[in-house]
Amino acid sequence: MPQRFIPPRDAYELRLSRIWADILHRDSLGIGMKDDFFELGGDRGTAEAVRAATVARFDAPLSMETFLEEPTIERIGCHLRERSRRLNEDPVVPLQPHGSKRPFFFLPGGEGSVLNHYALARWMAPDQPVYGLQTRGLYGTRPPFERVEDMAADHIESMRAVQPRGPYLLGGHCSGGVVALEMALQLQRRGERVAVLAVCDAWSPANARLRMPNETFLDDLVEFYSIVAAGFRYWFDADIGLKSDDMRALDPRQRIAHFMDLARKHGVYAPDEPDERIERILALFRSVSYSGYEPAERFHGPITFLRALDSKFCETLTEGWEDVSLQPLRLRMVPGNHVSLLTDPHVKVVANELRIAIAEARVS
């Protein structure tokens, strides 16, 4: 039985996959984190080239003996993170950095990881750069922002390190769409143009303020764990076997350990991912959900709202996004549910709609 494909799960694995792809002359998007280097076509000579490139790229020691012990990106990533995890704190992640076109910047939803959108970057045009804007609080010591306005301002400064001036191309999934909207408004006030603002299956700020007080998953943590685990079925094609009854029989600390043990076992997280990961995700969900964000003005440009046909998250057709912009809403119905619209095979349709929106914006 073939091994399940596991995409990069953090910045270390993403960069290692590109080193391997360059030296093996393969598409990095087809290299799994558990794939054996030699089964991918490597030999002793290319192994030495990969080892040397890894040492140079990460400024970290890596002996050939360590490389050969278990020649997978997953294991070498663990070795590099033993020395430092700082790379994961970078606020901008180049999901697809190649091409001369104006870059598209994408914000993740409540789970906070831009690497979940690896498939989206794959299906954008080969010459369309795609950067993920990493949510503060998922890694490192700094806590998440409590205000959407502060999240947006932080992302703008990170984005401008890649692209100092507009027009900008922005998008976001779920709560990331709301933060992208606030980014667009702040840029608008600075006199910058946001040529594309694309929102994937999200409540508008007004609907979020109405509905969040009735949501229970941020208080009933067993329900929260179940929702996150359900997303893994789409992001990673993995059913981690989480049982709500089993979780309720455990005390809070045991629940965290049990959840993370299952997630690591099924390849959702790397083997060395600390238990605190799920606590950080909860903090990120709460920071956006409890912010009570209300836009200070309306966006002057068009909004492309990509609504999943099978979404159980969105309750109305447009979710109130037509009230946020001065221009008519570009509503596009795409296949999938709230999560699967951004995973294979449905994400190809989303990528195509984004390419169309960018082309219609007439930016070079």
Overall shape: globular
Structure annotation, total helices: 13
**If you compute it from the alpha carbons, what radius of gyration comes out, rounded to the nearest whole angstrom?**
20 Å
Percent helix range:
40-55%
Low-confidence runs (pLDDT<50, min 5 residues)? none
Order of helices and strands: HHHHEEHEHEHEHHHHHEEH
Spatial arrangement of strands, main beta sheet: 1-3-2-4-5-6-7
Quaternary structure: single chain
Give a short account of the largest sheet: 7 strands, mixed
- What is the average per-residue confidence, as pLDDT, rounded to a whole number? 94
- How far apart the termini lie comes to 46 Å
The amount of beta strand, in percent, is 5-15%
Structural class: alpha/beta
Total beta strands? 7
List descriptors.
364 residues; single chain
Explained architecture:
This protein has 364 residues and is α/β, with parallel strands linked by helices. It is built from 13 helices and 7 strands. A 7-stranded mixed beta sheet has the order 1-3-2-4-5-6-7, with helices on both faces. Helix 1 packs antiparallel against helix 2, helix 1 packs across helix 4 and helix 6 packs across helix 7. The protein is globular, with a radius of gyration of 20 Å. The model has no long low-confidence stretch (mean pLDDT 94).
